[in-house]
Amino acid sequence: MTSPIASVLTRRTALGLAVAAMSMLPVAQAQTPAAKWPAQPIRFVVPFPAGSAPDVLIRFVGIKLTDKWGQAVIVDNKPGGSGVIGMNGILNSPADGSTFGFVQGSAISVAPSTIKGVSYDFNRDFVPVTLAAVAPFILAVPADSPYKTLADFVGAAKAKPKGIEVADNGRGTAPHLASALLGLQSGAQFLEVHYPGGAQAMQATLGGQTKMMVETYNVVAGNVQGGKMRVLASMGDRVEPGLEAFPLASKTVPGAVAHGWFAVIAKKGVDQAVLAKLNKDMGDALMLPDVVAKSRELGVYPRPGTPEQLVQYINEDRKTWQGVLDKLNIKPE
Fold first, then answer.
1. Is 139 helix (H, G, I), strand (E, B) or coil?
2. Is 243 inside any structural domain?
3. Which of 170, 273, 304, 322 is the right S-S partner for 283, CB 3.0 to 4.6 Å?
4. Would you say the C-alpha torsion 120, 124, 126, 130 has a positive or negative sign?
5. Which domain holds residue 166?
6. What is the pLDDT of residue 26?
């Protein structure tokens, strides 16, 4: 016969187990989205045209993620508007963990300060997932240029203010701002010449209409390797593999550091556990040996990290470029 005390203890034990089970339900439910994710194809909105370096990189990484997830990775190209069209494409997508962005840093740090009508606010509308890769800007001159070093070029520009032409791919673009930063940090005044794209800037430089161009290495690599252009310096913050032959601009002009960069972002509202899984899986994929090798071919360098590190990177990038925009008196237009 069961004693009254034992009966009470049994009831209390059962009640305690029931309460404990109920308290665990929210945890189990919170883990469910990430545990099941992805249960459908994943789309990356890319504000670049097909065939561009970042487009090729995310497609290559997408193959690795497809193998890992067992779900297709779809690249949705939405080029134009300095990345604004792509950013709006992410913003107009559901926050259900099926759509993310693989975007250029300038769409976050520069476009809202240079383009009228930008309706998104990164801190309000998006969340960081990971920095993906950087692409240092390269200072390239024709092979027969009289300027053998960056110091030669800066010296000539100081001796002839606004008399030495520098080509970029458009007013307010990242290459233009990188060139402006070089001028501000060195005290030289270049004659900035803006072209519709990197190809036109290169033709102008090869043709002698401009004396130097600012672009990422993948744009100038063919002519450098073919002996038609020389690199005076890299504006990277470190010597990257494959760029060891190029001195850092910051060694000649302190503070002359500028990258193009790409990041994975999400619309605000995506489940945090999903974001954490994507951060890990994307970081692992970016550092696979064949992905690193492909990145080098494209002139970009993987640098995955935490969302917090990306936030810090964005804040520093905004501060740098807003300072340049203010000094150049560039307003949204």
1. strand
2. yes
3. 304
4. positive
5. 136-252
6. 52
